Amino acid sequence: DTYAEELETEVLIVGAGLSGVYLLHKLRKLGFKCKIYEAGKELGGVWHWNCYPGARVDSHSPMYAYSLPEVWKDWTWSERYPDYAELRKYFEHVENVLDIKKDVAFDTRVVGAQFDKPSGKWNIQTEDGRVAKSKYLLLAAGFAAKRSVPDWPGLDKFKGEIHHSSFWPDDGVDIKGKRVAVIGTGATGVQFAEETAKTAASVTVFQRTPNLALPMQQKALTKEEQEKAKSQYPDIYRNRMTTFAGFEYDMVPSNTLDVAPGQRETFYEKCFENGGFQFWIANYQDLLFDKKANTEAYNFWAKKTRARISDPVKRDMLAPLEPPHSFGTKRPSLEQNYYEMMDRKENEVVDIKKTPVVEVTETGLKTNDGEHREFDVIALATGFDSLTGGMKTMGLRDVNGVPLSEKWKRGTWSYLGMACADFPNMFFLYGAHGPAAFANGPSCVECQADWIVDAMEKLRKEQITYVVATRQAEEEWRRKVTAISDLTLFPDTSSWYMGTNIPGKPREQLGFVGGLPLYKKECREALDNGFHGFTVDTAEEGGVQ
Ligand code: NA7
Description:
This is FAD/NAD(P)-binding domain-containing protein. This protein is of the alpha/beta class and 545 residues long. Helices cover 30% and strands 16% of the residues.
């Protein structure tokens, strides 16, 4: 019984999103006794939480899906970039095929966990006072489990509707004819603004940094074309694990300035036409490494985007002539008609780098130039304590009782982006030091989860009861993550990749930016070399030395 006050299991997984569902399915098939604790009410992770207007995935079909044939064989997408409602249906389909929910306790938030050496088990506490004991703890809570809200005075005073994007009411908010404010211009802010602008009286975007958004090129998909393509799916899914960012396309092996200007222009045009992230991660190979190459790409982006905005003031705010940061060192959003929507005269862009918000009032927002704007709805699209926030607020303690939030206070240490020293029999995925931030979600999930599953099979085969990363391995991994990042343009830009979106969070590279193939190789070597970088013990349960 998943809801029992005391649960004994072999594997406790935290989170029933893309990662947790896949892990449960794979491990259960191998005979591991598994349970999931999930804070929400349904499967689907981010797609359970994010139901704001316009919420949709930025990875195209069939990239954003499991590679499992039993799941894709009877599934059809209606759009190239499906929205949250369709993704929720996808998870219903996954449930019908894989029968996941019988092993999930919903409404169950983990607030504490510590490994007990004498018993060789994790003791896990939930918010409502239940306890679980488990030999393994697998953290699959995603990179956006901890939302970030500005610390503006008066946030609780606003009398209209105010919600963080990841906590949007499930039954929606009436937007029609309303004055809407959007704070933030990340993936969420852009999607929210372009969608609500269709029916709202006005949309005011409070922008700190312009999003260098790319054309999505959304398209309806037919069942026939998908059925025809399915014979190639095994190859497509195999191939996506061999590219830098886990898509079917990859960086082009030429340097930007070696290509003749006319040819380069044609290539850039093609990337825009094809849409999605192609201009970002199927661009010339030096885009994210070389400043001059990057500026070339930026100039093209600005030329294309500025041509879509007739208002000269908005044009300079949304797509300035000078790059606000190197292109692609912050995540570009995918847009459908964001620039046309914002260009409309009823909509406004407020530069809150110049005139920051100083107060939320009962009726609106005040900026430091004394302006007070009135709204009916405020959407906080202000993002997350990404990659580390979820794990830091889960009450995790190491074997000696030291909280993970302490260990990660001055920086993040992990081994392979999947294990931590002093946290035995624990693996995590889709978080810090892994490829999550730069890869297609399911590719990253399957890459890391397959490794965890292989590791657990090996542990069982070799009768290992205790496995823990060494501090030295952690130090080396952190150095590697940083050294790879230092070869790129990422460190110069403030972004959630670098941890700088959260006040007080250390500035450091939080993602593995060396690409999926290199990441896979590093992880594979650790396993093949007999758990290199880990300490293992085969003592009987209760007798860990
Ligand atoms: P993001 O990408 O973190 O975007 C958050 C946005 O909110 C971004 O434009 C921030 O400006 C802005 N922001 C954050 N805090 C503040 C404060 N205090 N004041 C003003 N503006 C603020 O989150 P999203 O939800 O859009 O996307 C998260 C990921 O989910 C996304 O990358 C996809 O992988 C899916 P900044 O840029 O920091 O100047």
